[in-house]
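User: two proteins, same treatment. go.

Assistant:
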Amino acid sequence: MALLITTACINCDMCLAECPNQAIYEGAKIYEIDPLRCTECIGFYDAPTCLAVCPIDCIQLDPQHTETQMELLAKFNSLKII
């Protein structure tokens, strides 16, 4: 499942640099996560790094983008990370 940043985000910049898939970007009001790039850090880490660094816990699972571990791994393998 991709992750989602809620409107509780305070734009602290902590998550932006932590995303190995470059899925997090600055949206109009808050940071956002591109569900096409988010793999919950599968392929890089054991757990999502954005969740670990978020000081206010405003990142959650995105119910609109449910994916299995295998689907997330396949997405990771299809990404071209620079």
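Protein 2:
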Amino acid sequence: MVNYRYLGNSGLKISEITYGNWLTHGSQVENETATKCVHAALDAGITSFDTADVYANTKAEQVLGDALKGQRRASLEIFTKVYWPTGPGGPNDTGLSRKHIMESINGSLTRLGTDYVDLYQAHRYDTETPLEETMQAFADIVRQGKALYIGVSEWTAEQIRAGHALSKELGFQLVSSQPQYSMLWRVIEDEVVPASAELGISQIVWSPVAQGVLTGKYKPGAPLPEGSRATDSKGGANFIKRFMHDDVLERVQQLTPVADELGLSLAQLAVAWVLQNKNVAAALIGASRPEQVAENVKASGVVIPAELLARIDTILGGVVERDPAKTAEGAPASRAV
């Protein structure tokens, strides 16, 4: 079963393995299978579920809401996000303006079938809306009881500091950051993590298995597995391509003895690895089959000895991306519409 951790310096506990439905619900897998995956997560003790209005253009929220019907709401932590274009893509259907935030939270609550979300997250930083406007809108949503906590996703350390300062002035506090983080992608370690730890903010990390590369299923020089994310034309292949190089894939295969020593699969090792970071409250996992959920949950509570962590670093060597500037480089310079 899953262990639980506090989110930031709040009193909210979340499951350290959190179920996310990016790239799956409403697009890659049928709704019936998606529901089975959600129920597998519940059976494994996962109580925290992460989605976003942009996933499958709002369909993912609807699928998650349907899958959670009948569950005791107070026993769940439901997270969603706002920023990216939704609906027909009009000029105000994106960003972090007061208008878009207020309309988006109402739409998300309707689709999720709930009166509130536990965590509402700014999916990216909006360079075209004053930060004061954004944070005031979040403050009002908290006061209205539509969101209990506020977080951000893929913000730089500087942006997190500015947002945190404003939130405190407005009577609430940022409690979380949702960045990409894995053995291969460590760009948050030098700046985002220290700033977050100082401010009482936790990480809820996405792609701990590097879009599936750290499962070891992609072999150097071998054909891509049929039906894998690397063959997905709906978006999966685009996200995974940065890791699809033989030097990376060869080093991932060399992690197998480390995983074997711990009695873990490579995927479980990858999830357990991100949870060794004390600033990480949860690792987000997705699934296209229920059994994948049960396997990933086995990473909860695993302690990786220091000598094995050092061996992992030696094996991966120069293929690890550590440049903190990558967070800003990956952010949109302007709104999509």
